[in-house]
Structure formats: C-alpha cells, structure tokens
Amino acid sequence: MTRFNRFVLRVSLFVLVFHLFGFLAYSQSDSVAVDREGLRKGIKGFPILGVMNDTIFYVYIKIGTSQASERAKLISEKIRRLYEDPYFNVDSLTIVESEYAVDLVYQDIIVTSVMPQDAEIYNLGIREISEETKRRISLSINNAIEENKTSKILFRILYTCIVFLVALFLYWLLNKGYRAVLKYLGKNRDKLLKSLTYKEYTFLTAGQELRAILIFLKGIRLFLYIVLGYSVLSIGFSIFPFTRGWANTLLALVWSPFRSIFFAVWEYLPNLITILVISFVMYYVIRIVRYVFLEIEAEKLKISGFHADWAMPTYGIVRVLLYAFTLVLVFPYLPGSDSNVFRGVSVFIGILFSLGSSSAIANMVAGLVITYMRPFKIGDKIKIGDITGIVLEKTLLVTRIRTIKNEEITIPNSAVLSGNTTNYTTMAKTEGLIIYTTVTIGYDVPWRETHAALIEAAVRTDLVMKEPVPFVFQTSLDDFYVSYQLNGFTRESIGMAKLYSELHQNIQDVFFERGIEIMSPHYRAARDGNMATIPAKYLPENYQAPSFKIKTDQKKED
Questions:
Q1: Is 381 within 8 Å of 388 (Cβ atoms)?
Q2: What 3 state SS string does 492-551 have?
Q3: How far apart are CA 444 and CA 516, in angstroms?
Q4: Do residues 86 and 172 both lie within one domain?
Q5: Does residue 4 form part of some domain?
Q6: CATH code, domain carrying 414
Q7: E strand residue ranges, 342-397
Q8: N or C end of the chain, less CB within 10 A?
Q9: 252 in a domain, yes or no?
Q10: Are 391 and 399 in contact (CB under 8 A)?
C-alpha cells in the first residue's frame, strides 16, 4: 500500500469515527440561509436557529431594551428547551393575542412575540405571521426528534460503513486497474509504441513516449483519487444532519469555480464572436493585400514609380500596420481590458520595449530607408567601408555579406546607412564596369609602344569586353618612370579577383614579348654588364649580357 493510499485510508477512518460520535455534539455555526426580506428592506436580520442548526425565521426589530440579536439568541434557547422536554406536544404550542402583540406560548413559556413592526417587514398580518412561526417551530422540533431517533442513527452509521467499504473497494479496483495497464504496456511496448518522426527528424522516441504515457496515467490516477476522496467526504458529511452543511460547503468549493467559469464564458461569448469576425475579415484583407504585392513583385502589375523589389518589403510594413489595426479593434473586447492591472501591465511592457530596443528600432528604420533607397540587391557585389563581398541577406535589422574568402559578415543597417556603399553589379549589367590597373614604365620606352602593349594585354583577357575598346591614361610623370593606367570594360562583377589576376598575367606576357622592361619602382641607371630584367625565355637564344664599357682619356695618360 502506497503512502497516498494509507493517507486516504486514515482520512476515511477519521470520517467514519467522526460520524459515529459526532451526533453527541452540535456545531453552533451561522446559518447559510439567505435573508431575502432583510436584504430587500435594507435591514439586518438575525436568524432563529433550530436544534439541527436550521434557520427557522429572522428577527429584525427590538422589543423594549432587547436588541434584535438578543431576541434571536433567547428564542433559539427556548426552542432548544422545548426539544429537550420529553413531553413536548405540538398541540400544546398555542397562539395568544394581546393588545399590542401576538405571543406564541408553550405551557408557561412565551416562546416568541410577533409585533406590528414584524408584520410590516413581511407585508402580512400579525395573525398570519404567528401561524407561520408556529408551523416552522413545530416542524423544526419534530424533524430534530425524528432525526435523532436511535434507529435512524444506527442506520446512518451502517450507511457510513457501506460508503467506507465501497470507497475501499473502488480504491482497490483503481490500483489494480493501474497495475494491469502498466503490465500491458510493458508486454506490448514494442508493438504499441513507435518513434514519432517526420522525414529525418524524430519528435519523440519510443522511450520518451512511454515516459509521457506513464506521467499521464499517474496524473489520471491522482485525479481519480482526489475525485473519489472528495465524493466519500461529501457523501459522508451528508449522512448526518449536523454535518450536511459541511457537505454543501464542500460541494460549493468545487462547483462554485466551475459555475463562475461557465457563466463568465457564457457572458463573454458575444465578445468572442466579435473578435472572431474581426479576425476573419482582417485575415482575408491581408491575403488580398499579399496577392496584390506578389503581382507587383512578379511585374505582372506595374505601378509608375514603384519598383518591383519594393513589393515584399512594403507588404511587410502594410501587414504590420494591419495587425496593429486589428489589435486596436480587438483590444476593447479582450477579457479584463478595462481593468487597471491590464493597463498597468501593458504600459510596463511598452516602457521595457521602448527602453531596451532603441538600437533595434534605429536599425529597423535604417533598413526601411535602405529598402527604398535601393543601393543594392541580393546577389550584388558591394563594398561597405573596407568590407567587399556579395550580399547574401537583407533584413530590417542587418545586412549579411560573403567576402571572397567565404567569410560571412553581418553589418547593422544603421552602419550601412551612415557609411558609403559601392555597388559593382548595377552598372556591370547595363553599360559595363570599368576595371583598371596601373603599371610604371621607364622613360626610355616610347609611350605609344606602352599603350599598344597594355591594350593588347586587355584584349587577351577573356572577361574584358572588346567593345568599347580598352584605353590607357598616363596618370603621372614621376622622377624615374611614367605611370600608365589601363582601363577596360567588363560585365563580370563577381569574379573580379580572377579577372585582375589574368589581366596582370597578360600584361607581363605582352611586355616581355615586346622586350619592354617593367621598371617599377625604379632601377639605378647602371646598365653595363647587367642582364635585362626580362625573363630568359623571352630573350633571344644567343643573348649575352652586355660587357662593361670602359673609356679612357689617352691624352691625360700621356
């Protein structure tokens, strides 16, 4: 037997013993009856309690120096004395009229008096109220005598024992069923439980499913334990008259919350239907707006001055605005939206959001501005600051770039907006991108030969366009050499590193073939006895380095 079962058994035994001996004592608790007349008149009434703690009627006014509460207590004591009289007879309870009141008398005891003020409370005559009072007191005393007979007490004890035995049987049956289910799961685990997967992802393994089922079964068993224990206590308390109020209280503890929830849901249904209608309408409005922007993005629908790549970002902004508008429409219909607590929490969340997201909002605003500035698109090769690469992703918050070394760099949109952005792809697709490189050649080489060599090197490069024809600028006349800048058009912006490498290779080949030395940065002007800087394979087969030239002045020697 588990610890919980032992606890339930002790509670059940306590209920049984309590009912066996509880009839010897009476609980003097306040009546739970509703004082309807007093509430309607705005007057506080004090209950007259019978032997079984039942409310017989209420007292509202005082008589002489006796307050209403004192009258109620005194009348209740007199009714108890009548019950304790072994020779009590209802017929001995008589109504005696006097000049100012009507008394209810038993032998020499005035049980209660009915005053004209009492009659005004109920809007009845004094005689009618007296007859009703006599009937209620007689009924209360007779019920108490009947309920406290030895035969009924023994029957209630027997009934309690039966309830206790049935409860024990149900507890035993519940435990047996629980163990049978566990045994069945243990034997058929491989047949019943399979891993829950979708494609290659496993949501739950068979072991995890078994643990989840065991937790669920334990929860169900605990719930049934609580329901059964609650039922035993409620039935046990309802067997004896003096504990029936406890049974009603115990029932109210469970039923009242469910009843309140049910009525709250029922009263909220109109607002819920309104929210559903608003949500339904706005859902299809958003779908229609999305369809329009998709048509613009596919360039099926063209609007003057509105570019196709603006479509989906603009749709995102419009969708957020529509969601905000929907929330504004739905907010008054939310439960508790008019409470100060709800408003306070909303303001607190708004303050936290505004304080903690200033940089994020700046990046979002920058992202919107960049979207409509259109400085680049996904797949363009750009340069932001000292970072050059291909645009992988452009969001409201950041821009992601992949460099030529396969490095992924994330740049906040605020930094993109505040700096300069160079786009290599835009013009390459239309007019062609101009690539350029600079070489320095000595003054001993005619500039026309250098121009021709550079242009030939550009023409040999595959990715350099033949039309327009490449051209050369002489950018400076330095101390030791002339700077020549070769310019050529290309439509290739992604593979520029490879293009420059091939162009430089061709420049070397052409210059060496033509016997032009690339004097960069510069050499000393001592050429006698030194081999040319051109690679040996480009020189003639019989090439020899020139000898040193020595010139003497014969006259001075003589």
A1: yes
A2: CCCCHHHHHHHHHHHHHHHHHHCCCCCCCCCCCCCCCCCCCCCCHHHCCCCCCCCCCCCC
A3: 10
A4: no
A5: no
A6: 2.30.30.60
A7: 381-384, 387-394
A8: C
A9: no
A10: yes
Q: What is the pLDDT of residues 137-157, one digit of tens each?
A: 888 877 777 777 777 778 778
* DSSP character at residue 299: T
Phi, psi of 119 (to 5 degrees): -65, -35
Across the range 23-39, mean pLDDT stands at 43
Shared domain for 379 and 330, answered yes or no, is: no
Q: Which of 56, 100, 45 is nearest to 78 (CA)?
A: 56
- State whether 53 and 138 are in the same domain: yes
Which percentage of the chain shows pLDDT scores above 90?
18
On whether both 403 and 331 belong to a single domain, the answer is no
The pLDDT of residue 501 is 93
Q: Which of 21-35, 473-487, 535-549 has the lowest mean pLDDT?
A: 21-35
What pLDDT score was predicted for residue 528?
A: 61
**Span of 24-38, 60-74, 202-216, 530-544 with lowest mean pLDDT:** 24-38
Q: Kindly state the average pLDDT of the residues 109-120.
A: 78
Nearest to 368 by CA among 449, 424, 287, 314: 314
Kindly state the tokens that stand for 428: 């390459």
Pairwise CA distance, residues 5 & 175, whole Å: 9
Contact 452, 512 (CB under 8 A): no
Residue 18 falls inside a structural domain: no
Q: Do 495 and 395 sit in the same domain of this protein? A: no
Range of the domain at 349: 280-359
Q: Are residues 336 and 393 located together in one domain of the fold?
A: no
Residue 7 has pLDDT above 70, yes or no: no
